[in-house]
Write a structure and sequence with these properties.
alpha+beta; 2 domains; two-stranded antiparallel sheet; 21% helix; NA-targeting_endonuclease; HNH nuclease domain-containing protein; HNH_nuc; HNH_5
């Protein structure tokens, strides 16, 4: 089981193991906001398994510009949907092909399904008569968050809605 860690201001900070969360609670550094049904037992104590904890002290998070694009990052930004046909995507495509001077930047990479990637090849969108529904851009918010928050645990949802 994984545990959502909220900063003192209730913003999602990270996801840790339930064991690490229990240690933070036992040392008085955090409190349990939501718990899983199964307790953590030791020879001397029995405590609820934390699903969401709140840190008592605020942790300052340094936000940096988005890093260089990666396949995983582009697929995550585009929610694994093809930019051309909206089907599930597993590859990345250059909007302006590299053979025509296109760079590997956030603004030129989109998630793409295999059939569309093959069909597009090294052609431009104008040559094919295709268009993009959205303009590719660097990920703006919550790009720093762990990938576990893409499909959050049901106990985390109220706390993630509060943060948004």
């Amino acid at each position: 089981m994984r545990t959502l860690v909220l900063n003192a201001g209730y913003e999602p900070l990270s996801v840790v193991s339930s064991r690490r969360a229990a240690v933070l609670v036992m040392h008085g550094k955090a409190s349990i906001l939501a718990e899983d049904g199964t307790p953590i037992s030791s020879p001397s104590t029995l405590m609820p398994r934390p699903a969401v904890i709140l840190l008592h002290r605020y942790v300052r998070v340094v936000r940096r510009r988005p890093s260089s694009p990666s396949r995983r990052g582009v697929l995550r930004r585009d929610q694994r949907r093809c930019a051309y046909c909206s089907r599930p995507a597993a590859t990345v495509d250059h909007v302006i092909p590299r053979s025509r001077g296109g760079n590997s930047t956030w603004e030129n990479l989109v998630a793409c399904c295999g059939p569309c990637n093959v069909r597009k090849g090294d052609k431009t969108l104008d040559e094919l008569g295709w268009s993009l529904d959205t303009t590719p851009q660097p990920p703006l918010h919550h790009a720093w968050m762990p990938h576990e928050l893409d499909a959050p645990h049901e106990l985390w949802v109220p706390f993630l809605d509060h943060a948004a």
